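DMT family transporter, Azospirillum endophyticum. Tokens?
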Amino acid sequence: MIANMAALGAALCWAAGGLIAIGPVRVLGSIAFNRVRLTIVAAALLVVTTLMGGWQTLDAGAALTLALSGLLGIVVGDMALFWSLSRLGPRRNVVIYAANAPLTALLAYALLGEALGPWTVLGVALVTLGVMLAVALRSGSTHSWEAIQGSLLAGVSVCLLAAVGQAAGSIVAKPVMAAGADPIASAAVRVTTAALMFTAIGILSAVRGGKSAMAGGQSLGGQSLSGLLLPRGLTPKLLMLIAGNGLLGVGLGMTLLLVGLAHGNAGVVATLSALSPVLILPMMWLLTGQRPSLGAWAGAAVAVAGVALIVNR
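Tokens:
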């Protein structure tokens, strides 16, 4: 029950965090937004872990394993997810990315020997199907964001790569969490690794752009590198929204996910934490006044039925 509640809590955090992120992402772009929020969350988690003494639960091997988990789940997963988002649009992207739940269950069975009972398997299938239906049948599919840009095959393939990255990140972290690692310290290692990697990618991109500018007779002037810390368009209000999104969605959400992995089956935890697209439906209704379509509610009902099977197995 601890694992189930933690996974559902993570899904709730991600759903609420997603609403907070809409404005900042539109202003800064997904890459700059992700880099800023990961840096903020990493700093907060490092301070909290140090004050609470969580580092004592991690040895060098566990820290390296968690760093690999962050590299796979956050860096590879997020970069692939954002890339496919620009090609497929949000609706198709979420539907395909929902495959990370059954992929996690399959990897957990193959690599960790975590078998699922028949009712739990049915519950996982219903939750995944319900999430896909809730997103696919949501109103507004004619929006310009939903237009396919470039190759459909490439977009689908990269989105599946994102799902595999998320699943692999959870599987890699599972043994460390089951061994008693502190969830906050573990989240600190994963997020700090991702923040450093995104910053390194940004620096390489800025240096490459600076060399191109200098080759064209223009001065770099340090503006590209300084933009890594203070992206163009970043205001105090946006910074507060990014911090709120990061602390809620990444900080608390990831910590709850790791708590779930420490106490439960990786496939079940991944499935329950993937309910964000369903949980966000009533939130959107309250905020925008636009009622989700009947098909979206039908998908949500299927997902809830799957949750009931999992929780009461």
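The chain has 13 helices and no strands.
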